[in-house]
Amino acid sequence: MRVLLRRLMGVAVGGALAGCAGQHHPMNTLVTKSNLASWIYSLFVQVTFWDLLVLAIVVAALALAIFWFSTRVGDPTEPAAFQSDTRLELAWIIGPALILLAITVPTVRTIIRTQPNRWPKNALTVKVIAHRWWWEFSYPQYHIQTADELHLPVNREIHFELTSADIIHSFWVPALGGKRDVIPGQVNQITLIANTPGEYYGQCAEFCGLSHANMRFRVFVQTQDGFKKWMDHQLKPPVNPGSGPAAAGAAIYKNAPCAICHQIRGVSGFSKQYTYGFRGPDLTHFGSRTTIAAGILDNNPKNLARWIANPPEVKPGARMPALGVRGKELDELVAYLESLK
Ligand code: HEC
Ligand SMILES: [Cu+2]
Questions:
Q1: Residues lining ligand 1, CB < 6 A?
Q2: Which of 81, 96, 222, 247 is deepest in the core (most CB within 10 A)?
């Protein structure tokens, strides 16, 4: 029994430590890469300090009561009668009040500091629209639209405007802080400044149905130059393949129902007059993304073929239906989409 207990402890402590360590744990909130995340982290450390202090005092008092004041053989069986003790009572009113104050001050300060900037002047605005089960990102100042992979410049104020096309989701990038509900018919906001270039993981944090756990995204924080390059590239019209399998794929795209839900800027599909009542990701520069279907597959031709052949098989509940594209047609369609760098 004891051995079992010790092993269980080992697993629990090991697991907890592993959860805290290093960049191999992308959902770690203890390594912060933005001003917002640092403020929240700092509050967490302060509150944890006071929590541990209170815990230590309570445990010490309890131990003292158990070992020092316990009844011993020969003690009188009637407990001693006490009158009130004013000093003691004042101490346990004033002590906790001071601790509460020590927690309240940084808490209120953090609440005020982390408010979104409602009149962002020089900020980069990013509109986030959550869909079951993917993320639409757009930059209204620059007329850029993309999906599932968010690019941000380092050291520049970013102003997020978050809303949902269907049900409640939650936008969460642990390294950048935040976690804000994304609610249909309402615009929630986050303002932050990312301070370290890198690739960070995001995840929907509000249960939203079958593929909630597969509703991920990536954030690429880039140098100002890198971001500008990315932006300039996104503004370019999509590649127009002249010949070969990609050109054949472009013809298939135009005649398949893909464009009912998808947009490739400047490329019209046969089916614009139909609608499913929801849309899919913008594919104008799909080939320049690193992942497929909200961060669940690496973007390569093999995975893309798997995705198009049967989306719900790859991602349970995916709202893109299997459209029966297969064989040579599928290969050509994949070649076209991957050419959309
Ligand atoms: C009924 C609407 C609908 C139709 C029709 C449709 N799709 Fe989709 N598609 C979606 C949705 C929704 C997603 C996002 C799925 C997710 O990640 O959960 C998606 C995702 C994708 C993606 C991944 C995009 C990314 O950035 O990860 C590709 C590529 C794609 N579709 C290609 C196609 C092609 C090619 C066709 C036509 C053969 C097609 N789609 C037809 C709705 C549709
Ligand atoms: Cu969700």
A1: 133-134, 147-148, 256-258, 260-262, 276, 280-281, 283, 286, 289, 292-294, 308, 315, 318-321, 323, 325, 333, 337
A2: 222
The ligand 1 atom nearest the CA atom of 333: 35
| pLDDT of the residue at 241 | 87
- Domain 245-339 falls in which CATH fold? Immunoglobulin-like (2.60.40)
Please report the atom of ligand 1 found closest to the CA of residue 257. 5
Interaxial angle between packed helices 86-113 and 35-67, expressed in degrees from 0 to 180 and rounded to the nearest 10? 160
How many angstroms is it from 167 CA to the middle of ligand 2? 9
Q: Name the CATH superfamily housing domain 124-233.
A: Cupredoxins -  blue copper proteins (2.60.40.420)
Q: How far is the CA of 322 from the centre of ligand 1 (A)?
A: 10
Q: Are strands 297-298 and 291-292 parallel, antiparallel or unpaired?
A: antiparallel
Binned at pLDDT 50, 70 and 90, residue 21 comes out as: very low
Which uninterrupted H or E stretch holds 162? strand 157-164
**Best CA proximity match to 289, nearest among 340, 335, 254, 247:** 340
Domain with CATH 2.60.40.420 in the chain: 124-233, 245-339
Tokens representing 335? 């070649």
φ/ψ of residue 311, rounded to 5: -55, -45
Element housing 192 (H / E): strand 188-193
The confidence score (pLDDT) of residue 71 equals 80
pTM confidence score: 0.87
Which-ligand-closest: CA of 279?
Answer: 1
Model pLDDT, residue 336:
95
Mean pLDDT of the chain: 89
- Token representation of residue 261: 């839900």
Over residues 73-80, mean pLDDT: 78
Judged against a pLDDT cut of 50, whether residue 121 lies above it is answered with yes
- Looking at the chain, the whole-number percentage of residues with pLDDT higher than 90 is 71
